[in-house]
């Protein structure tokens, strides 16, 4: 074996020192969930700075030719067992700060590690420690030492994407504090016995620090709190600062700035209080601070403990399909959704059965490849047992940092560390799968179904049928159908009377009532009827034109109050384990039923102005073309639906796909345009030359420009997002496919849907805790081998009392007959 010093010298030119902007993956393998804590540690390429687990580093060496890797291993330090409880575990401290990862905040259970670092040369895996470098040539020692130090000092990609700590109590000094105007009006505030000067409320009271007015605070969305009198006083006077009475102690108090719309610090608070006769040093706390109130909301027994099954001792589970996922900072929505998708056979077969092929075909930087990262999600959870470590009662779980960064890249919400709506993320992920599976099997088809909408003009009794694609059934919650109305009214009465001992009462809504609200006809009061050529009243009923293999039901718990403040409905719904939707299957046109004529609404006419062809919404036309429909059909769909959006245009396409002239050019009223003379037939030679200069063929450039109405920038974006389609396309010189050129009698099919019986069984549900989708926490329950299992981030346990009545998203699979 060659001397290790000579080997290092031979590969020295490939060893780089990280520069600002380099992405250093030193916490997670690019092809698995291996980390420095895993068996075998992590190998970081000293040229590309990509990390690889011990099972994949040889594969990377063979493909790239790189030989020098920094080998990082971490060993968990044993924790001292302070203040042992009877179970052998330290008792969990109650949070006293609205914070994550700092003293007094919500515990994230940070672990301490011992770290070992050395250089490994492949393929023989020769090792070089920092001490070994001391005996080598100066040029080798300097270059390798700088690279090692640079890699270890660099912020890892996962670190830059992950929130390590968050403190909700960090407050800034108010800009009004230093020069606050205080009126010499003789007002003196007693040390107790306060009441709102407007409504006599005795709690949630705030004293304005300018004039000493004592008024009640804001009314919360659930009806609690105050009556907004302190806020109204600021709006009338402009006096900005107020202190919450009952929170004043020698250490400070809650101060709110209405002008800055936030809790603030007032460095002159003792002086400002003394002005109204209040001595901070003698005051005692009698009310909960705003922080304590928020912490209480985040630990609400009525929902949080029930959904997380906190009241029972849960048995941890291990094995294939039972690996948890670390919370990367408000990523529980992603964890819950992906855990459920892992159980769907279509996703398993797409990303697990051909894992070796995916890895072999992965690009040089697999961290930026969607297919590879989805493979990690699918493959990692069922099979990577090495992560199923049990430490102090919690599974460590896997941390999908690269996956989260990739699926959120470019998205204004999912690219952040803020909490998100699980339903919106599910649709976002399905959309990404759709875009990346154009030329192969598409697992999203498991959820895809057709909805038939039947609109009946009440004046002519003629009907119109349209179909659209959907992935989720949104189930309304009819609050007026609650079965415990008297209990709800009594609880509301006691809350209005200020009875703090009143128990929270949750509305009991029958599932049958929700289904009835979904299927009942909707009244359209402003419907333009082509039969009577005027606006009139119509009814719209919605039915299933197909039943998917897997059905997702969203309970519409999030809504807006009369004041447009978002709120969450606190309801319990008796969601069934089995579901039969057969009665909701669409029947299509009925015998003897007349259809509404296909006539577009008359255009808006302006006197003495030349009437021109309407401008079509290019973005909608482009979106339809991307789905594989002919350009002219897309243009007609947008025209005949009056530029009203993608849903309406899609409905038109689904209803006209069998028309003999489906792919024929759009001929506008009053125009003599025929085939070959539509505006899009004339393409800019300059635009064509620009795209061809990028390495694409003229046929490909033509297709891109036609799909984007001859707009160069959009055509370039379109062509790069349709590379898979362009590689396999058969386009003639004129830009049309051979099939279209020969008459186009067989238009391409629309989105494929599966169909079968409408009978289902519940296999998973996702629950949300908190007051809105932008805060709180998600967990999921999945039925595995007839046993309900709770996935609460990295914790995976056997469920004792699955709270099926409190779910947000429910997942059903078809029952085989």
Describe the protein's architecture and organization.
- β29 and β30 (795-798) form a beta hairpin.
- The chain is α+β, with helices and mostly antiparallel strands and 817 residues long.
- The protein contains 25 helices and 31 strands.
- Among the domains are: 4-78 and 99-167, Herpes Virus-1 (2-Layer Sandwich), CATH 3.30.40; 205-299, Zinc/RING finger domain, C3HC4 (zinc finger) (Herpes Virus-1, 2-Layer Sandwich); 618-656, Helicase, Ruva Protein, domain 3, CATH 1.10.8.10.
- The strands form eight sheets. Strands 18, 22, 26, 27, 28, 29, 30 and 31 form an eight-stranded mixed sheet that branches.
- α18 (618-626) packs across α19 and α21 crosses α22.
Question: Any idea what the shape is?
Answer: globular
Average pLDDT figure? 77
Which spans of ≥5 residues are poorly predicted at pLDDT below 50?
Answer: 81-91, 97-102, 160-169, 297-301, 369-395, 604-611, 670-681, 727-750
- Number of helical segments? 25
Profile the largest sheet. Answer: 8 strands, mixed
| Helix coverage percent | 25-40%
Give the CATH topology of the domain at 4-78 and 99-167.
Herpes Virus-1
Structural class: alpha+beta
Q: How far is the N terminus from the C terminus?
A: 65 Å
How many beta-strand elements? 31
- Return the CATH class of the domain at 4-78 and 99-167: Alpha Beta
The radius of gyration over CA amounts to: 32 Å
User: How much of the sequence is in beta strands?
Assistant: 15-25%
CATH superfamily of the domain at 4-78 and 99-167: Zinc/RING finger domain, C3HC4 (zinc finger)
User: What is the CATH architecture assignment of the domain at 4-78 and 99-167?
Assistant: 2-Layer Sandwich
């Amino acid at each position: 074996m060659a001397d290790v010093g000579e080997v290092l010298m031979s590969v020295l030119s490939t060893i780089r020192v990280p520069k600002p902007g380099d992405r250093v993956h030193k916490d997670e393998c690019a092809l698995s969930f291996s980390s420095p804590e895993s068996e075998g540690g992590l190998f970081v390429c000293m040229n590309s700075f990509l990390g690889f687990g011990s099972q994949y580093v040889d594969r990377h060496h063979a493909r790239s030719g790189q030989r020098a890797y920094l080998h990082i291993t971490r060993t968990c330090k044993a924790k001292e067992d302070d203040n042992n409880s009877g179970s052998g575990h330290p008792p969990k401290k109650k949070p006293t700060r609205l914070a994550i990862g700092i003293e007094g905040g919500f515990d994230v259970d940070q672990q301490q590690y011992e770290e070992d670092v050395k250089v490994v040369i492949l393929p023989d895996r020769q090792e070089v420690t920092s001490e070994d470098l001391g005996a080598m040539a100066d040029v080798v020692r300097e270059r390798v030492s700088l690279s090692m130090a640079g890699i270890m000092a660099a912020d890892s990609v996962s670190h830059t994407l992950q929130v390590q700590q968050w403190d909700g109590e960090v407050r800034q000094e108010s800009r009004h504090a230093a020069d606050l105007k205080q009126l010499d009006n003789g007002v003196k505030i007693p040390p107790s016995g306060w009441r709102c000067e407007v409504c006599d409320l005795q709690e949630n009271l705030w004293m304005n620090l300018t004039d000493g007015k004592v008024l009640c605070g804001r009314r919360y969305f659930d009806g609690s709190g105050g009556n907004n009198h302190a806020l109204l006083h600021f709006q009338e006077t402009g006096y900005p600062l107020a202190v919450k009475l009952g929170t004043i102690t020698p250490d400070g108090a809650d101060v709110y700035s209405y002008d800055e719309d936030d809790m603030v610090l007032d460095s002159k608070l003792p002086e400002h209080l003394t002005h109204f006769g209040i001595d901070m040093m003698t005051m005692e706390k009698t009310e909960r601070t705003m922080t304590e109130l928020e912490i209480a909301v985040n630990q609400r027994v009525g929902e949080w403990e029930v959904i997380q099954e906190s009241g029972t001792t849960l048995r941890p589970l291990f094995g294939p399909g039972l690996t948890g996922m670390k919370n990367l900072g408000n990523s529980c929505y992603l964890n819950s959704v992906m855990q459920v998708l892992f159980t769907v056979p279509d996703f398993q077969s797409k990303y697990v059965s051909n894992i070796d092929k995916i890895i072999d075909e992965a690009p040089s930087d697999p961290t930026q490849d969607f297919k590879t990262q989805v493979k990690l999600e699918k493959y990692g959870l069922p099979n990577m047992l090495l992560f199923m470590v049990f430490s102090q009662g919690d599974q460590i779980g896997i941390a999908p940092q690269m996956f989260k960064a990739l699926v959120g890249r470019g998205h204004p919400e999912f690219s952040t560390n803020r909490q998100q709506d699980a339903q919106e993320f599910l649709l976002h992920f399905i959309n990404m799968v759709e875009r990346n599976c154009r030329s192969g099997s598409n697992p999203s088809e498991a959820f895809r179904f057709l909805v038939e909408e039947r609109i009946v003009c009440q004046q002519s009794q003629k009907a119109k049928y349209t179909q659209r694609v959907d992935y989720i059934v949104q189930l309304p919650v009819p609050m007026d159908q609650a079965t415990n109305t008297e209990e709800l009214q009594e609880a509301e009465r006691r809350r209005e009377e200020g009875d703090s001992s009143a128990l929270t009462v949750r509305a009991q809504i029958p599932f049958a009532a929700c289904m009835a609200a979904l299927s009942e006809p909707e009244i359209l009061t402003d419907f333009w009827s082509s039969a009577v050529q005027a606006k009139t009243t119509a009814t719209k009923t919605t039915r299933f034109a197909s039943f998917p293999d897997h059905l997702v039901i969203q309970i519409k718990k999030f809504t807006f109050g009369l004041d447009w403040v978002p709120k969450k409905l606190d309801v319990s719904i008796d969601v069934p384990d089995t579901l039969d939707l057969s009665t909701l299957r669409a029947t299509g046109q009925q015998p003897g039923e007349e259809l509404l004529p296909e006539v577009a609404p008359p255009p808006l006419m302006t006197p003495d102005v030349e009437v021109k062809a309407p401008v079509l919404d290019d973005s909608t036309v482009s979106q339809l073309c991307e789905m594989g429909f002919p350009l002219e059909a897309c243009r007609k769909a947008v025209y005949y639906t009056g530029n009203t959006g993608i849903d309406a245009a899609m409905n038109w396409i689904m209803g006209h796909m069998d028309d003999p002239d489906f792919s024929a050019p759009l001929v506008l009223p009053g125009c003599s345009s025929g085939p070959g003379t539509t505006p899009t037939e004339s393409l800019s030679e300059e635009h064509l030359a620009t795209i061809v200069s990028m390495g694409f063929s003229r046929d490909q450039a033509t297709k891109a420009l036609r799909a984007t109405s001859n707009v160069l920038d959009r055509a370039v974006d379109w062509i790069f997002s349709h590379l898979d389609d362009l590689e396999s396309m058969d386009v003639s010189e004129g830009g049309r496919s051979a099939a279209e050129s020969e008459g186009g009698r067989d238009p391409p099919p629309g989105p494929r849907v599966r169909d079968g019986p409408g009978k289902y069984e519940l296999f998973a549900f996702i629950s949300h805790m908190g007051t809105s989708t932008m805060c709180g926490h998600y967990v999921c329950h999945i039925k595995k081998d007839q046993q309900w299992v709770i996935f609460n981030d990295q914790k995976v346990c056997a469920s004792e009392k699955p709270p099926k009545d409190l779910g947000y998203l429910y997942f059903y699979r078809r029952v085989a007959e």
